[in-house]
């Protein structure tokens, strides 16, 4: 009556530490989902209002300057691509001047340096 089921794969039974790890992963995922839901419910209405305001401004500009909305949106898309590529309309300062490049290099070196230290330590410990 008190038969236990034989298990042909004891390696499939997680250890206590592994079970705790899985539980922690699930709890973190649930925490993140709850945070995302709260953040979305708080921020989404403001985003919708801002989008409506943007659309009204586009239509007004289009009407005031006799430019089609499609042409205006096309121009703004080009502008957005240029900004993403680092092109500024203000030519007073270049994106890759010496101070900007120095800051970038410092950020890369400090970030990679810390990561490499951890990798080297973990390899040396093995």
UniProtKB/TrEMBL annotation:
InterPro entries the UniProt entry points to: 2pore_dom_K_chnl
Keyword Transferase: no
Subcellular locations according to the entry: Membrane
Keyword Transmembrane on entry: yes
UniProt GO cellular component terms: plasma membrane
Annotated TM spans: 20-42
Membrane topology type: Multi-pass membrane protein
GO terms of biological process kind: stabilization of membrane potential
Alphabetized UniProt keyword annotations: Membrane, Transmembrane, Transmembrane helix
Main subcellular location: membrane
Any GO MF annotation of the entry: potassium ion leak channel activity
Name of the molecule in the record: Potassium channel domain-containing protein
